């Protein structure tokens, strides 16, 4: 499309043209905004079905850089790590509402702060979406303390 007002062409973007299943590996990986919201422990409320987030991070989550420390071997080290590409449709609800995979799966657009839109990898942090510097180590975690660790991931926006 060419904007009449400024003459700037708006190039088609792959995430609007392809389904998730049609994407190449690079395209798929670029969709991840690096928010880290899928790298903390979560629970499903048995009554409401609501997904409750905690600030307890996966042992491979680097809180300073908001990244997996060994993304390539994560499945061997953390068998519970979700493989989103292999996930059944019903499990997308476990992803945060801000997650690009969930948004596209539900036919919704990406947010303006998504790095693919902003052109800036840090925009996910600047918009207050990421959990960088907001998680605690789960190694010595006592299950009786779980309630104290429940968070609203949007609270620091
Ligand atoms: S929640 Fe989605 S966008 Fe955020 S880190 Fe996980 S996979 Fe990437
Ligand atoms: S293994 Fe890596 S990608 Fe998987 S939950 Fe842990 S930190 Fe996140």
Descriptive overview:
The protein has one domain (19-151). It contains 6 helices and 6 strands; from the N terminus they run ααββββααααββ. It has helices at 14-17, 25-30, 74-77, 100-105, 115-118, 123-126; strands at residues 40-44, 51-57, 61-62, 67-68, 136-137, 150-151. Strands 1, 2, 5 and 6 form a 4-stranded mixed beta sheet that branches. Strands 3-4 form a two-stranded antiparallel sheet. It is globular. The chain starts with 13 loop residues before the first helix and ends in a 6-residue tail after the last strand. Residues 32-38, 84, 95-96, 99-101 line the site of one iron/sulfur cluster.
Short description:
The protein is of the alpha+beta class. The chain contains six helices and six strands; from the N terminus they run H-H-E-E-E-E-H-H-H-H-E-E.
The hetero molecules present are: iron/sulfur cluster
Work out the radius of gyration.
17 Å
Average pLDDT metric: 90
Unreliable spans are: 1-9
End-to-end Cα distance, whole Å, is 33 Å
H and E order: HHEEEEHHHHEE
Query: Which structural category do the helix and sheet elements fall into?
Result: alpha+beta
Our estimate of the beta-strand percent is 5-15%
Largest sheet: 4 strands, mixed
How many domains make up the 3D coordinates? Answer: 1
Helix fraction bin: 10-25%
State the helix count. 6
Question: Which of globular, elongated, flat, extended, rod-shaped describes the shape?
Answer: globular
The count of DSSP E runs of length 2 or more, i.e. the number of strands, is 6
SSE blueprint and pairings:
Elements: H1 14-17, H2 25-30, E1 40-44, E2 51-57, E3 61-62, E4 67-68, H3 74-77, H4 100-105, H5 115-118, H6 123-126, E5 136-137, E6 150-151
Parallel strand pairs: 2-5
Antiparallel strand pairs: 1-2, 2-6, 3-4
Bound molecules: iron/sulfur cluster (2 copies).
């Amino acid at each position: 499309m060419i904007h009449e007002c400024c003459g700037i062409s708006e190039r088609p973007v792959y995430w609007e043209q392809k389904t998730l299943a049609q994407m190449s590996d690079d395209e798929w990986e670029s969709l991840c905004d690096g928010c880290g919201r899928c790298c903390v422990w979560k629970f499903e409320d048995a009554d409401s079905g609501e997904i409750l987030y905690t600030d307890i991070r996966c042992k491979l989550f680097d809180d300073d850089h908001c990244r997996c420390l060994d993304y390539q071997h994560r499945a061997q080290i953390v068998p519970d790590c979700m493989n989103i590409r292999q996930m059944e449709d019903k499990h997308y609800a476990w992803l945060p509402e801000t997650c690009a995979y969930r948004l596209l799966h539900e036919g919704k657009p990406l947010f303006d702060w998504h790095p693919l839109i902003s052109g800036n990898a840090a925009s996910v942090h600047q918009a207050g979406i990421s959990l960088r510097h907001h998680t605690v180590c789960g190694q010595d975690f006592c299950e009786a303390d779980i309630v104290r660790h429940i968070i609203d991931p949007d609270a620091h926006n």
